Amino acid sequence: MCSLCLSSLLLVLLVLCFSGVSSADTVNPTIIGKGYRLVSIQETSDGGLLGHLQLIQNSKVYGPDIPLLQLYIKHETQDRLRVHITDAQKQRWEVPYNLLPREQPPSLTQTIGKTGKKPITVSEYSGSELIFTYISDPFGFAVKRKSDGQVLFNSSSDPKDPYGELVFKDQYLEISTSLPKDASLYGLGENSQPHGIKLYPNDPYTLFTTDVSAINLNTDLYGSHPVYMDLRNVGGQAYAHSGLLLNSNGMDVFYRGTSLTYKVIGGVFDFYFFAGPTPLGVVDQYTSFVGRPAPMPYWSLGFHQCRWGYHNLSVVEDVVENYKKAQIPLDVIWNDDDHMDGHKDFTLNPKNYPRPKLLAFLDKIHSIGMKYIVIIDPGIGVNTSYGVYQRGLANDVFIKYEGCTLLGASLARGCKLSRLPQPENCILVG
Ligand SMILES: *[C@@H]1O[C@H](CO)[C@@H](O)[C@H](O)[C@H]1NC(C)=O
Ligand SMILES: *[C@@H]1O[C@H](CO)[C@@H](O)[C@H](O)[C@H]1NC(C)=O
Ligand SMILES: *[C@@H]1O[C@H](CO)[C@@H](O)[C@H](O)[C@H]1NC(C)=O
């Protein structure tokens, strides 16, 4: 929402962000588990590989380990390799398949306890551009590029490495890859790293989709893009590839210069490797998978004025007028929820933003080619006389937690939790 959130909220969020990424964590990270052992692997009818991983030893931190994992690997296209690891006995949260249409891994009931028709004895599984290789005990996998033999990803650890083996618990997943020193990595947004999109060793990369002002450095922002592009100089030639961890849970990614560790608080490991080898090729392969960007309207590239705190329409009119006086061309003027009646989406404040006056203002700015945007908050105001709230309850559309409608509170919007009518057993989140 706004960029002017309460400073105390920012402070709390900042403290939370930084507490997860102390330098002790990156320099001397805790090795949590002993990893898993590959106990079976077979070919699937769709040309993939399906295996099971068994926990080597329980570790006590962060809850019990998941004892048996299902591993599924597939060369989905000439330049895309998928590595999917999940609980072999229980369905886990994944980015919904209807939101991001993609191939389904074999279902758990189908695979559990089945002995492979075609057990695999070789430890290499080759596609046209990429090769998947693995070590069984402890289990680690690597992805190599066929043409130049470069190892793009390698999850096995050595005793000298500052990271450990695969960890898979209900609320803590960890996996690492070693990287050559001269690899340059870009991505893992959105965040406000002072260096831009190039990854710098020991900078914090937290993906947690928070509404924090971008003024703060080293902070995670609205979006989560758990994908990076790795650019390498191989014998004087530039080679690019990309790794996407398709997981919508919060995560920290630790880049140490010669390794990268994902620490994720839920979901599954669903890796997609895009072979490149050019940066443009990577972007093409990635967007053919996640969806192409929509073309933007030309006017959206113009100059925008947007802020929270325009108390009434006169203030907005003044802002537009003052741009004109200062001879600064203005293409778009925004309202950030000040126009709403009592924080209710799709309404106008009758006193401060009367509809006839707003429409007259819009006619005026439209006539000179300007555009107007209003910010709509995804939160629906709790007010029993509010039609959207009433219809939402009647149609049972709100997110539930333990059977109760989940009430969130954006402090910046001044929601007052104590006034909300709630059945006794409902849980409020702030
Ligand atoms: C991956 O790393 C392990 C541990 O350092 C090493 O033994 C293995 O050879 C590497 N795999 C590849 C394909 O380089
Ligand atoms: C609009 O808001 C400004 C600033 O709060 C105030 O000075 C002004 O009187 C208001 N105008 C109207 C028409 O309400
Ligand atoms: C609900 O909306 C009405 C009409 O806008 C308003 O008068 C009332 O104060 C609101 N109630 C709450 C609890 O916000």
Automatic annotation (TrEMBL):
Residues 293-402 form the Glycoside hydrolase family 31 TIM barrel domain. InterPro entries: Gal_mutarotase_sf_dom, GH, Glyco_hydro_31_N_dom, Glyco_hydro_31_TIM. One of its GO terms (biological process) is carbohydrate metabolic process. Keywords: Glycosidase, Hydrolase, Signal. It comes from the Eukaryota. PANTHER family: ALPHA-GLUCOSIDASE, ALPHA-XYLOSIDASE 1-RELATED. This is Alpha-xylosidase 1. It comes from Prunus yedoensis var. nudiflora.
